[in-house]
Write a structure and sequence with these properties.
There is one protein chain. By secondary structure, the chain is an alpha/beta fold. The chain has one domain: Rossmann fold (3-Layer(aba) Sandwich), CATH 3.40.50.300. 42% of the residues lie in helices and 17% in strands. The protein has six helices and four strands; from the N terminus they run H-E-H-E-E-H-E-H-H-H. Strands 1, 2, 3 and 4 form a four-stranded mixed β-sheet that branches. Helix 2 runs parallel beside helix 3. The chain starts with 25 loop residues before the first helix and ends with a helix. This is Iron-sulfur protein NUBPL isoform X2. GO terms for molecular function: 4 iron, 4 sulfur cluster binding; ATP binding. Keywords: ATP-binding, Nucleotide-binding. InterPro entries: Mrp-like_CS, NUBPL-like, P-loop_NTPase, YlxH/NBP35.
Length: 155
């Protein structure tokens, strides 16, 4: 069996973000044991079953000495575009409760919004296609919180 090594030249980077699937499987362990990681951000919807995976993921990163920078509550609320009524489809404040349990901060909330899905499907993330929107501001707030924590953490 041949072993292949993939080399990627990313050039000069300020940050490299790796989006991994939820859980504590081989992918997460291999990445955390073989690549120097400055911090992990745990993203979860507010529903109980997703929060169980988020809790396991945070604990796994702590066990392998990767700092957990905080939690992001994804699909936190749906606001009707017509009447502006807000509905917590996946439950309310689940990530906040988990953050308290884990002694972590919530870095922000990402709403369940059609513009996020449409922009992503077109390959134009909402922070580029609609930079002044509330949805883009949610992502930018989370990014600034992550950067703030990375800059203040010891290397």
């Amino acid at each position: 069996m041949q072993k292949y090594q993939l080399m990627v030249d990313w050039g000069q980077l300020d940050y490299l973000v790796v989006d991994m699937p939820p859980g504590t499987g081989d992918v997460q362990l291999s990445v955390s044991q073989n690549i120097p990681i400055s911090g992990a951000v745990i993203v979860s919807t507010p529903q109980d079953i997703a929060l169980m995976d988020a809790h396991k993921g945070a604990e796994m990163f702590r066990k392998v000495n990767v700092p957990v920078l905080g939690l992001v509550q994804n699909m936190s609320v749906f606001q009707c575009p017509k009447c502006k009524h807000k509905t917590h489809i996946f439950g309310a404040d689940g990530a906040r409760k988990l953050a308290q349990t884990l002694d972590l901060d919530v870095l922000g909330d990402v709403p369940l919004h059609l513009s996020i899905r449409e922009a992503s499907d077109m390959g134009q993330p909402v922070v580029f296609s609609q930079p002044g929107s509330d949805e883009a501001k949610a992502y930018l707030h989370i990014a600034s919180e992550v950067v703030r924590r990375l800059k203040s953490s010891p290397e």
